[in-house]
Amino acid sequence: MSLDWIYYAISWILLTWHSAWDAIGVPVGAVIGTNWAWILAIIFLVVTVRVILFPVFVKQIKSQRAMQALQPKVKELQEKHKGDRETLQKEMMELYRKEKANPLMGCLPMFLQIPVFLGLFHTLKRLNPENQGKTLYGWTVDQFNSASSAKLFTAPISGRFGSTAADLAPLGANTNTVKLIAGVLVLIMIATTYLTSRQMILKTGWAEDPQQRMVQRLMLYGIPVSLLVSGSIFPIGVIIYWVTNNLFTLGQQQWVLRKFPPLVPPKKNTTTGGKSPAQPAKTGGLLGRKTAQPAAKAPAAAPKVAGPKPGAKPVNPKKSGGRPAKRQG
Predict the structure, then answer these.
(1) Among 50, 62, 213, residue whose Cα is nearest residue 116
(2) What DSSP string describes 86-143?
(3) What is the DSSP code (8-state) at residue 160?
(4) Which of 112, 194, 215, 246 is deepest in the core (most CB within 10 A)?
(5) What pLDDT was estimated at residue 292?
(6) Under the phi-then-psi rule, with left for phi > 0, alpha for psi from -120 to 50, and beta for the rest, what region is 207?
(7) What is the pTM of this model?
(8) Separation of alpha carbons 186 and 243, rounded Å
(9) How far apart are CA 103 and CA 177, in angstroms?
């Protein structure tokens, strides 16, 4: 299947944003060793894609809420079919079908961005002044030459950590500089990829379903580790796209989780053995720390009134005027 339509779409978005920044007045030449119009074009490619995929992200959040609500039933099935993995999987799939929940919906936004990633990877990989196919995918010769010479702190956006001196010679770049810039960006890419998954898991908790828990572990550990190796073949422009996308995801998830906080499972009551009703997520102090609550004051004790002694005569304060009674002879 030809992917030319993806290459045309990615090229059109890049060229449109580059023309927009050029029209606004962003310098075409390098400033601090960086061609900001092309860097901003890549950053706003992320913004464009994320705005288009926002409805899918909303569906992802709804699916995660539905999966969270099903956790008690999933736990019951696990207890019921302990040791019978095949039956357990069938029962859980039937539960998901009946409740219209999809455990893979959480990965859908990422899967939909794969074509964009591949399109950008292919487009930036072609940026070489010696390339003869400069007018492919809607580019002009001037636009192609401008993008081929675009740099981030003197490192070309088409350069890679694994680029050789021969690869970088037509771009007029230094090998050590490219490795330094690409290496720092790869580390930032790995860290932000880990943080986006960790942020969601900390807020929603680990899934009870083994299949969904495996997906969570893959997202949290597997993908960042794989980037340590694959990051060496990514052009610098693609890494800029990935880092920007991760930062966008962190901000978007933080906003959604604050606006629509996940449900907190009910806690067992240790005194009665029953369950307390579900509570909203607790809000702590700075950095999530619990704030100390003032101790409740004990009610003030009522003043003690001394009773009359045995055998004493009652005293009428109105007659005596508060004076002691006269002793009778």
Answers:
(1) 50
(2) HHHHHHHHHHHHHHT--TTGGGHHHHHHHHHHHHHHHHHHT--TT-S-TTGGG--HHH
(3) -
(4) 246
(5) 45
(6) beta
(7) 0.72
(8) 9
(9) 43
Burial environment of residue 66 by CB neighbours within 10 A (0 to 12, 13 to 18, 19 or more): middle
* 97-119 b/e (C-beta count within 10 Å ≥ 16 → b): eeeebbbebbebbbeebeebbeb
Pairwise CA distance, residues 171 & 304, whole Å: 95
Q: Sign of the C-alpha dihedral, residues 164, 165, 170, 172? A: positive
Q: What is the DSSP letter of 164?
A: -
> What's the pLDDT band for 298 if we cut at 50, 70, 90?
low
Number of other residues whose CB lies within 10 A of the CB of residue 176: 9
| HSE-up (13 A, CA, CB side) for residue 4 | 4
Closest CA relative to residue 199, chosen from 152, 244, 253, 161: 253
What pLDDT score does 324 carry? 52
Tell me the C-alpha distance between 92 and 85, whole Å. 10
By the 8 A CB rule, do 221 and 276 touch?
no
For every residue of 214-274, DSSP letters joined together read HHHHIIIIIHHHHHHHHGGGS-HHHHHHHHHHHHHHHHHHHHHHHHSPPPPPPPBPTTTS-
Distance of CA 245 to the CA centre of its chain: 10
Work out the pLDDT band at 135, boundaries 50, 70, 90: very high
Listed in sequence order, the residues at least 6 apart from 121 whose beta carbon sits closer than 8 Å to its beta carbon are 234, 235, 238
170: phi then psi, degrees, rounded to nearest 5: -65, -25
106 vs 56: CA distance, rounded Å: 10
φ, ψ of residue 275 to 5 degrees: the values are -115, 140
What proportions of the chain, in percent to the nearest 5, are helix, strand and coil? 60, 0, 35
Tokens of 193: 């990829």
pLDDT of residue 315: 54
